[in-house]
Amino acid sequence: MKNETNLFRIEACIGTLQSGIEAEKGGANRVELCDNLAEGGTTPSAALIQMTKEKLQIPAAVMIRPRHGDFLYSDLEFEIMKKDIEFCKSVGVEAVVFGLLTPDGNIDCERTKILVETAGNMQVCFHRAVDLSNDYLKAVEQIIDCGCHRILTSGGANKAIEGIENIKKAQELYGNKIEIMVGSGINADNVKSFYDLGIRHFHLSGKVQIDSQMTYRKEGVSMGAISAEEEYKITQTDYRKIEDVKKQLLK
């Protein structure tokens, strides 16, 4: 069995503190902390950030995303992103995660550089906004030039396994300049396919649906876009799914 020291890193995408506890139990090396995971993740609350720092031993990367939807932000939204990064820095967060695009699908280099500078000593990950860019490899090069430390990517496809050829090219061309972290559909069945390409950073939620403990359930009423039945399902990381990925990587 391989020695895991410096061999790979598993990042668990979490939306609750309990998911973070599960991820750490399963052997994750870091958590990506978000709110609204069903919408791709937005900035979590100050309390969740601080309690994650208090309760977990592993580092946290905090999502900086003021809303769901595209990655073209207004001036007001950009100011919110800067203030959220400043807050993360003030409470000792290890890393922040964001992505910005221009209207024509290029990386917004000007604003990305400003946010990288705002982050100071924190690590910066440019997230899957890169997968929505108009020229994938050019975008990766631009992200490197902006000073980011890591890229979370599915290779420009909906799922990482579908974008594996682009991921392979990015790793070959730029893997010595930036950490290429694969995400979207990563699991114990496919993680070795990426490891064999030289990828050493893996991102997954390891999620399951847990049934609510509510005994009274109001029929026909929901609080949002989901169905009334789904109101009584809670999405949470399962430590065993993280553990299974780690076992595959250690083989």
Descriptive notes:
Helix 1 links the parallel strand 1 (9-14) and strand 2. Helix 1 packs parallel to helix 8, helix 3 (75-90) packs parallel to helix 4 (109-119) and helix 5 runs parallel beside helix 6. It contains eight helices and ten strands. The chain is an alpha/beta fold.
* Total of domains: 1
Distance between the terminal alpha carbons, to the nearest Å? 5 Å
Shape: globular
| Mean of pLDDT | 94
Strand order of the largest sheet: 1-2-3-4-5-6-7-8
CATH architectural grouping = Alpha-Beta Barrel
The Cα radius of gyration reads 18 Å
Features:
251 residues, two-stranded antiparallel sheet, 8 helices, 34% helix
List the helices and strands and how they pair.
Blueprint: E1 9-14, H1 17-26, E2 30-33, H2 46-55, E3 60-63, H3 75-90, E4 95-98, H4 109-119, E5 123-126, H5 136-145, E6 150-153, H6 164-174, E7 179-183, H7 191-195, E8 201-204, E9 207-211, E10 233-237, H8 239-250
Helix pairs in contact: 1-8, 3-4, 5-6
Characterize this entry briefly:
This protein has one domain: Copper homeostasis (CutC) domain (TIM Barrel), CATH 3.20.20. With 251 residues, it is α/β, with parallel strands linked by helices. Helix 1 (17-26) packs parallel to helix 8, helix 3 runs parallel beside helix 4 and helix 5 packs parallel to helix 6.
